[in-house]
């Protein structure tokens, strides 16, 4: 009898904790994004960096065909997730000088192409480090307070979906500059620990629903195939993919325990397997080409090498997984977001 009572109390506590953890089915007021080119909608446009793409043929499939600074032919995942959440078709870049206070209300992206968790990555590329993005986020919140009041700011902190996407540039580029200090495994671990530190900082600033993307199979992007995959075979760069997997295998359990430790919801969002499967079996997803980008001759071009002077850009980017030699097309992003959001978004809505 006594044992039964204890058991019941235990079950009630578990049910109660789960209910609090999931929160009310509040609508998401805003999407707030940190990270790199996957999520950048134009933050690099006014920076003194070579890593920008606010010129054609970037944006050729964007609404009205404009090159906005998105590293793709069309929209990028920040936009696609904002659309899924019913917020807007596009997510503004925080550094856009034309933003008015009301444009901030449904969220912004602080992401900067070329950045990473390693502070050295942003330094090499002259872009905004994820750590500086947190400083801009503080400024964002104070702008919301100033223009719309404390309560609105609190609602945005409590209920918005916060997304963090980084690591590709650290793994693919900065590691080469750091290899005297780290071996592959310890560098991947250092990055995963940095990601966890980032989430803690973001949580301290008030964010409560945080999703962190895994690393992607960055060894399979066309550029890596061209440089490291063999002249004729152009296979994936396996050691680099293994580093990405090491990062993920350390990040995933660390975020799970953070989810238990902190209030709110901390999600590890696995993108590796989905993108890898798309690259291995493009036809299953309606793609024709997986090992070259649409822009230029598709094997090396990125940023200024993919501009209107090159005559080779493909006409149908929907048939390609990659837009340039590093970044997916809007259609590939849409496939990933559709697949992921069904799985993960229900946990934060
Ligand atoms: C929660 O909100 C979503 C999105 O508005 C809706 O589809 C879903 O049915 C709601 N769930 C519950 C349990 O009310
Ligand atoms: C473009 O490619 C997609 C995907 O392979 C295909 O479904 C579509 O028919 C193609 N469009 C044209 C105009 O060829």
UniProtKB/TrEMBL annotation:
Keywords per UniProt: Glycoprotein, Hydrolase, Lipid degradation, Lipid metabolism, Secreted, Signal
GO BP terms: lipid catabolic process
Keyword Chloroplast in annotation: no
Organism encoding this protein: Arabis nemorensis
GO cellular-component term (any): extracellular region
Annotated compartments: Secreted
Gene3D superfamilies hit by this protein: SGNH hydrolase
InterPro entries recorded: GDSL, GDSL_lipolytic_enzyme, Lipase_GDSL_AS, SGNH_hydro_sf, SGNH_plant_lipase-like
Name recorded for this polypeptide: Uncharacterized protein
Highest classification ranks of the organism: Eukaryota, Viridiplantae, Streptophyta, Embryophyta, Tracheophyta
Signal peptide: 1-19
Family: Belongs to the 'GDSL' lipolytic enzyme family.
GO molecular function, one term: lipase activity
């Amino acid at each position: 009898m006594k044992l039964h009572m204890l058991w019941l109390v235990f079950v009630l506590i578990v049910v109660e904790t789960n209910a609090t953890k999931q929160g009310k089915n509040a609508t998401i007021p805003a999407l707030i994004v940190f990270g790199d080119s996957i999520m950048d909608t134009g933050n690099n446009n006014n920076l003194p960096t070579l890593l920008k793409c606010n010129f054609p043929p970037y944006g050729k499939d964007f609404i009205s065909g404009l090159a906005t600074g998105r590293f793709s032919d069309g929209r990028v995942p920040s936009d696609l997730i904002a659309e899924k959440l019913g917020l807007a078709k596009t997510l503004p870049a925080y550094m856009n000088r034309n933003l008015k206070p009301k444009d901030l209300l449904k969220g912004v992206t602080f992401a900067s192409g070329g950045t990473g968790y390693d502070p050295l990555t942003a330094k090499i590329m002259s872009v905004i480090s994820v750590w500086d993005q947190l400083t801009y986020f503080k400024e964002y919140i104070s702008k919301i307070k100033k223009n719309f009041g404390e309560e609105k700011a609190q609602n945005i902190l409590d209920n918005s979906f916060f997304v963090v996407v980084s690591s590709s540039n650290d793994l693919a580029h900065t590691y080469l500059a750091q290899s005297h200090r780290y071996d592959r495994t310890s560098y991947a671990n250092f990055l995963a620990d940095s990601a966890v530190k980032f989430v803690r900082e973001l949580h301290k600033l008030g964010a409560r629903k945080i999703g962190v993307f895994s690393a992607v199979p960055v060894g399979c992007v066309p550029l890596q195939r061209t440089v490291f995959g063999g002249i004729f075979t152009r296979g994936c760069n396996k050691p680099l993919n293994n580093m990405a997997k090491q990062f993920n295998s350390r990040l995933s359990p660390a975020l799970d325990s953070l989810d238990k430790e902190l209030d709110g919801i901390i999600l590890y969002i696995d993108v590796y397997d989905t993108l890898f499967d798309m690259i291995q079996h493009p036809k299953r997803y309606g793609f024709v080409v997986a090992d070259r980008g649409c822009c230029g001759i598709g094997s090396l071009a990125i940023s200024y090498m993919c501009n209107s002077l090159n005559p080779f850009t493909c006409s149908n980017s929907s048939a390609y997984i990659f837009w340039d030699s590093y970044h997916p097309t809007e259609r590939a992003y849409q496939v990933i977001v559709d697949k992921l959001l069904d799985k993960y978004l229900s946990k934060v809505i």
